[in-house]
Design brief:
Helix content is 31%, strand content 23%. It is of the alpha+beta class and 315 residues long.
Length: 315
Amino acid sequence: MDTILKERISKRKDGLSVQLKDDLLLIADSVAPVWKQTDKLDNLLFSSLKKMPKCKLIFAVECNGIQVSSNIQPNGKIITFSRGQNLSNRPYMLNMNPNNPFSLSPVYISQSDHKPSITALHQVFDKQGHKLGCVAIDFNIDDLPESAIELVDNNYWRQIKGDPAIRQNLFQQERITSSMDENINQVHDIINNLICKRGIFHAKLHYSSSRATLWLYDVPHEYRLHVLNEIIDPEVCLAYPAKDYPKNAKTLPNDVYNVLEKFRSLRFADETIYLRSGSINIINGMVGLNFSCDGSHYMPVTEFLEKPNSFWFGV
């Protein structure tokens, strides 16, 4: 996993830990006196659910992974046959830190409802300080507090390898001139107009298959697909109403055409290693590149424009 993405996830989990650990400590302390009295333990766990209104399950488990309580659900359902089951191989038990009373599991797919879930655990101690086990609370990650969510920023260069079968046969292939190649100037002029004057904020040009997919700023959840005879016809511009260039765009209007010209350069620079498709998103200021070797790159527009062709082809 990418380092920056790992850092984002770690911060998110740190925020969740702050929100959960104090309430879970109170629950752990309350159940210690009745740890060996299963029915009373179940009742206490159920009454403690008001402290965790968004959870889907609460239960108690011994240090060896054997569950001592029932599975207690917020709707009042108590599943007694869960007592005695071995949970030692579950993700939340395998990743529990014995030196930290509170721990938060990795996200895992729940066996019961097949949803991404996370488990918070707090160790339980008796009056003499001996560890009895831990209290565990399961959450669907969709039910976690919204305030703790931080959006992932992907505005940095990433290189991703593609299909190894394609890379294996790279030097047995050669670029075939596509219909879009033959009309590339016209296509770029029209795409430049659509982005700078007609509300398109994300465009992807599939040079090898002669098509384009476009995303409108005002309708970002849908995309428009155009085949070549549509995207080389200037009248297509009439299908998109005029719109001012977005003020929150990270890409300067003048750089849009520069990016398209750079795409053309990479498309024709070599007959074996060449650009198959290229995309530009002016809002986050990123380009995406997919080459004939099936390698993909994602990088900021400014960085992309600074790179000479030798960076891509080693000449």
